[in-house]
């Protein structure tokens, strides 16, 4: 989109608009993040946790600017299957790990974890909650299948790590599964 904007504006005789518009398309999310971080600093309220210093917020913002494209434009769309579920033959009796991602994510969000878990031979399953804009109620079946897969391989109930909306999907599964 940035390249298309640049070419069209350039051909229309507006080189400044070509560069400015392309840069805004590529880095506009950094402005949105900056606004979110400013609001974060103002919305501390009566939280007993210490406020983040401006330097800490700036460092976190800068880190997020670098991490977001890497995660959302590379790892999730192209590397979500880089580390397949790991259920080694010697998994029986060892606790497995189930990873449930958040909204508009997929199992690629866990890639750094999955690599370390695989290296340590920890049994794990990382689900994809699909369809992306589906009902949380429908995700319970995906979680149930993953739990059963881990229990079958290990003989034990798994430890579950859920992020954001994944936690809501997990709560829905838990309500259905009972004890």
Q: Please, could you describe this protein's structure?
A:
- Helix content is 59%, strand content 6%.
- The protein has helices spanning 2-11, 15-42, 54-79, 111-119, 136-154, 165-177; strands at residues 97-100, 124-126, 159-162.
- It has a 3-stranded parallel sheet with strand order 2-1-3, sandwiched between helices.
- Strand 1 (97-100), helix 4 (111-119) and strand 2 (124-126) form a beta-alpha-beta unit.
- The model has no long low-confidence stretch (mean pLDDT 93).
- It contains 6 helices and 3 strands, in the order αααβαβαβα.
- It is globular, with a radius of gyration of 21 Å.
- The relative contact order is 0.11.
- The protein has 179 residues and is mainly alpha-helical.
Index terms:
179 residues; mainly alpha; three-stranded parallel sheet; 6 helices
Fold blueprint:
Blueprint lengths: L1 H10 L3 H28 L11 H26 L17 E4 L10 H9 L4 E3 L9 H19 L4 E4 L2 H13 L2
Parallel strand pairs: 1-2, 1-3
The largest beta-sheet arranges its strands as 2-1-3
Largest sheet: 3 strands, parallel
Q: Which whole number gives the mean pLDDT?
A: 93
Please state the CA-atom Rg, rounded to the nearest Å: 21 Å
Helix and strand element order? HHHEHEHEH
Number of helices: 6
Gross geometry:
globular
| Count of β-strands | 3
Helix content estimate: 55-70%
Q: How far is the N terminus from the C terminus?
A: 50 Å
Structural class estimated from helices and strands: mainly alpha
Q: Which spans have pLDDT < 50 for at least 5 consecutive residues?
A: none
The percent range for strand residues is: 5-15%
């Amino acid at each position: 989109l940035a390249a298309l904007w640049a070419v069209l504006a350039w051909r229309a005789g507006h080189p400044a608009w070509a560069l400015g518009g392309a840069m805004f398309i590529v880095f506009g999310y950094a402005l949105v993040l900056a606004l979110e971080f400013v609001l974060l600093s103002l919305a501390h309220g009566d939280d007993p946790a210490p406020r983040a210093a401006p330097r800490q917020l700036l460092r976190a913002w800068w880190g997020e600017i670098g991490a977001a494209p890497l995660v959302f434009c590379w790892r999730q769309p192209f590397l979500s299957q880089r580390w397949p579920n790991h259920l080694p033959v010697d998994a029986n009796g060892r606790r497995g790990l189930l990873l449930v991602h958040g909204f508009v994510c997929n199992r690629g969000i866990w890639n750094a974890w999955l690599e370390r878990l695989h290296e340590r031979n920890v049994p794990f399953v990382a689900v994809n909650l699909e369809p992306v804009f589906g009902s949380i109620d429908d995700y319970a079946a995906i979680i149930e299948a993953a739990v059963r897969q881990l229990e079958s391989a290990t003989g034990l109930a798994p430890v579950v790590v859920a992020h954001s909306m994944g936690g809501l999907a997990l709560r829905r599964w838990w309500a259905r599964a009972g004890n």
